[in-house]
From TrEMBL:
The UniProt record lists the keyword Cytoplasm: yes
The protein's name in its UniProt record: thiopurine S-methyltransferase
One annotated GO biological process: methylation
Reactions accelerated catalytically: S-adenosyl-L-methionine + a thiopurine = S-adenosyl-L-homocysteine + a thiopurine S-methylether
Positions in coiled-coil regions: none
């Protein structure tokens, strides 16, 4: 209710990165990913794992170092470049022909590919499908009016036996305008089924 009409523009997100107002970024791996890693991997190796609205999440390198292929998407080119710089990872940058103005930053090892564009510009025909998703700050960052669109896209990116780890936050939405936005468990269930 209180947040349903709230919308954060792409320019506002870019400004957060430019001004260092990135309290949502975690310098260390998220303890819930560590705790539920076995649920994500389910005994499998060499998975393709998607990081929606990835920022410069340190977990991307952690999972890539385990032998998984990591793909992320983020509107902030600065965030993506900082990711590679902070991990001292060489990378190449190339345009994404299917998406006007988009770029792909790929580690020279080939196991980390980060797309700089709107998540809504992506499709499985461009980035493929995934065995797992780590959604630590995406659903709660998506504007409430775009949640159904976001979840519909995410579902098209999942392989049949994919695992989807989702972290949300619980608080009184009348006291904080978001983001992160409040997404109650009932809404998560109605969105993802």
């Amino acid at each position: 209710g209180a947040q349903k009409d709230r919308a954060v523009t792409e320019a506002e997100w870019l400004r957060k990165w430019e001004t260092g107002n990135i309290g949502f970024h975690k310098e260390r791996g998220h303890p819930l990913l560590q705790k539920y890693l076995d649920v994500l991997l389910n005994g499998r190796s060499g998975l393709r794992i998607f990081f929606p609205l990835c920022g410069k999440a340190v977990e991307m390198k952690w999972l890539a170092d385990m032998g998984h292929s990591v793909v992320g998407v983020e509107v902030s080119e600065q965030a993506l470049k900082e990711f590679f710089a902070e991990h001292k990872l060489p990378y190449c940058e190339e345009p994404v022909p299917e998406i006007s103005g988009a770029k792909r930053f790929q580690s020279t090892s080939g196991n980390i590919s980060l797309y700089c564009c709107s998540i809504y510009d992506l499709s499985s025909s461009i980035i493929g499908k995934f065995d797992g998703v780590w959604d630590r700050g995406a659903l709660v960052a998506v504007n409430p009016c775009d949640r159904q669109r976001y979840v519909s896209l995410m579902i098209t990116l999942l392989e049949k036996n994919a695992a989807y780890l989702l972290v949300t936050v619980s608080y009184d939405p009348n006291k904080h305008k978001g983001p992160p936005f409040y997404v109650p468990e009932s809404e998560v269930k109605s969105l993802f089924g």
